[in-house]
TrEMBL record, chains A, B:
Annotated GO MF terms: DNA binding
Protein name: Crp/Fnr family transcriptional regulator
One Pfam family in the UniProt entry: cNMP_binding
Alphabetic keyword roster: DNA-binding, Transcription, Transcription regulation
Chain ranges of the HTH crp-type domain: 183-257
Keyword Manganese assigned: no
The keyword Transcription regulation is assigned to this record: yes
GO biological process: regulation of DNA-templated transcription
DNA sequence: CGCCAGATTGACACGGCTCAAGCGGTGTGG
DNA sequence: CCACACCGCTTGAGCCGTGTCAATCTGGCG
């Protein structure tokens, strides 16, 4: 939420935002990865549900994948510049792909919701260009890179599905860029919320949707290129107009058509027609605590 | 270069910028596609030069491709929402991928330089989410979608190369998003110029590079999310500091290390190590006229 | 019950946008 | 061969959307 051009003078005050790498986000002490029972860990995944896979290919994928692991919030799943040897699927919880500016400015290049593949680039690129960090407690599944490559070589459907995932991510990123470059704060938020409501598979009824929405205002700011303060003010406007409401991590959009109009949102770019409909996870998910970081030890 | 939040009141004045679709860019009357002799049209292409292809696969690609065609400047190669049935390679000249905001704001999601693939998404997505338009006269080569799919199915190297192209485009887009969201005008321009100097394969010597650079200031603005006026002022600053100079479509960066520092540029994300080095095209290319559009009808 | 992350508020500053001319070069029609 | 027409580049004045800085408030958790 810091902009780069601003120098980071105040190393003094305690809870002031600080450059990312200096620990504005809490440093992680234990990754607390523990195994969880599972049978079809990939089932709710966008890759799994894409129309490009045959059932045989689905089976092959399922066998190649590790079992579920649960991860704390604020954990780096992928660190910028370090070797990455697995594709990570986020089965439950939210994460983000982020990059930082020399000045400490932080920016998200993706918000990852349940079912998303966190780091497709690890398939072909060994040093990731940006990190991936959980925003909530999450459960993930890994597909070792070598296995993924082998599968993609043997099964053209799997290769095609990977390419498709990359193309959709591209389309989303292009829309984000459009927002970042040419939309006002209000439009940015409207567009983002419309997008997320669809991506998490929330069921709209009577122009209204509700869905789990763990990000803090600061994290929203890092996604749309604003300041946490300004996100706050803009949210107040949207709230005052009766368009959005957030209560205990659940976001409600009360007038989706209006929001779409404001944000200039057209769902086509998400290409949801190439995926089997995904059921929305339970509205209040006990595994979703935006676990507050315990202070330094 | 219009920002969306601004209403477009002045339909009166003559040379004022106008919403994109209303013809700020000249409307195209004739596509003027004419054949040109060629032998290995794909040779200078990033796909062709990627390490993922075997020589057999290169041959297969070469055979599948149409012969070169030359295209005028300001021509839509791909129109948003319309069916696209070919992958287009831009062999010579520059183009851009663009999208527009309801308010008429225009934004580029990519600048395409010689050797780039214009619309990889056409491989799997039939209605493109954004348009592609030439910025200069250009020569292009097409690979029919069905052929591309068949090749990707038969040759895993080709499939892999496609995926790789998508991933690199993604990485570039992510950096653009970082710029858009968190960098100042000066930083944005510095970063963009550093990126382009590498992508066009310009040879740096003694901290200095020169390369063909056809975009107008307005087009630069559409790439970095600024106004043409502000790009102009920022360019003046960079020029005054002796960092960049443009003369007759040739850009010279006189102090690349300094520019990289300003823009926070780290070339890793371009993953040039996965492509055979590409020779820089001749510095002044007679085919590069930023052909001015003749006026109406 | 105290702590702390996150949400909220207010005062103020500034980067970048808007509006409005003006300038120089270059194809083009007369 | 000249004179427009027109594109792209510049410049100046003024404004406003967002950022900055600094408190304060609030609810959940240990």
């Amino acid at each position: 939420m810091l902009r780069s051009q601003q120098t980071c003078r105040s190393a003094s005050v305690l809870y002031r935002p600080e450059p990312f790498h200096l620990g504005k986000w809490p440093t992680v002490r234990s990754c607390a990865i523990k195994r969880v029972s599972d049978d079809e860990p990939l089932k709710c995944t966008r890759l799994w549900n894409s129309y490009y896979l045959s059932s045989e290919e689905r089976r092959a994928l399922q066998q190649a994948v590790t079992s579920r692991r649960s991860v704390n919030a604020h954990v780096d799943l992928v660190s910028e510049g370090e070797l990455a040897d697995s594709l990570l699927f986020i089965v439950e919880g939210w994460a983000c792909r982020y990059a930082t500016t020399i000045g400490g400015g932080r920016h998200f290049s993706a918000l990852l919701v349940p079912g998303d593949l966190c780091n497709l680039e690890a398939l072909l690129i060994d040093r990731p260009d940006c990190g991936v960090r959980t925003m909530t407690a999450a459960t993930i599944v890994a597909l070792p890179r070598e296995l993924a490559l082998a599968l993609a070589t043997q099964h053209s459907g799997i290769a095609r599905a990977f390419t498709w995932l990359a193309l959709v991510e591209n389309a989303i990123l292009a829309k984000w860029a459009l927002s970042l470059g040419r939309r006002s704060a209000k439009e940015k938020l409207a567009h983002l919320f419309c997008e997320l409501s669809l991506r998490v598979g929330a069921q709209e009824r009577e122009y209204e949707v509700s869905f789990n929405f763990p990000p803090t205002q600061e994290q929203i700011a890092d996604a749309v290129g604003l300041t946490a303060v300004h996100v706050n003010r803009t949210m107040q406007v949207l709230r005052a107009e009766g368009l959005v409401a957030i209560a205990s991590r659940i976001m409600t959009l009360s007038d989706v058509p209006r929001l779409r109009q404001i944000g200039g949102f057209d769902p086509g770019y998400l290409h949801l027609d190439r995926v089997r409909a995904n059921t929305q996870p339970p509205l209040v998910n006990p595994n979703y605590p935006r676990s507050r970081s315990r202070r330094g030890s």
